[in-house]
Specification:
The protein is an alpha+beta fold. It contains two helices and seven strands. The strands form two sheets. It has a four-stranded antiparallel sheet with strand order 3-2-5-6, with no helix packed on it. Strands 4-1-7 form a three-stranded mixed sheet, with no helix packed on it. Strand 2 (78-83) and strand 3 (91-94) form a beta hairpin.
Length: 159
């Protein structure tokens, strides 16, 4: 008995976008881009991934600015925040280039003491800092937190 082998050809399919389909494809893409530009929340994956039942813990926010003796914001001021009458917990921060700092604290009625400390060299007539006249500046402010709220304060540092 004689057996023969047959070869079968497989077809390869290619996707070709014709002119009419190309225009529709571009129209749908443009419509989606405009929709996301108008409402960016549709494009963010964060809103879709957060579970609806998970609640964030309440907190109060102490937001402040550290000012120098010339009433200008100071960069690099070491800020310490701790509850008044207690040593712990305490938070250590450093002011940014605008002299600002922020810290979340537990909500509720509480008193906090915010202290700032920095080394300051005044500017000379030539615009350079005079390191020989360097001074240590200190300042403190008391803050009362009533509930979960934002408190804006200023810490004025003096000699």
């Amino acid at each position: 008995m004689k057996t023969t082998m047959m070869r079968m050809r497989t077809r390869k399919t290619r996707t070709v976008i014709t002119e009419g389909r190309w225009i529709r494809h571009m129209a749908v893409t443009l419509a989606m881009l405009l929709l996301f530009a108008v409402n960016p929340r549709l494009a963010s994956a964060d809103d879709q991934q957060k579970p609806a039942n998970k609640k964030e813990k309440p907190y109060a926010l102490i937001f402040g600015t550290a000012y120098g003796p010339d009433d200008r914001p100071l960069y690099g001021v070491k800020i310490t925040i701790h509850p008044q009458g207690k040593k712990h917990p305490s938070w250590d921060l450093v002011s940014d280039h605008r002299g600002e700092f922020a810290q979340r604290v537990p909500p509720g009625p509480a008193e906090y003491l915010v202290t700032g400390q920095a080394d300051y060299a005044p500017m000379g007539d030539d615009g350079k800092p005079q390191l020989s006249k360097k001074k240590r500046l200190r300042g403190e402010t008391k803050v009362h937190v009533a509930n979960d709220e934002r408190l804006d304060i200023g810490v004025h540092l003096t000699e």
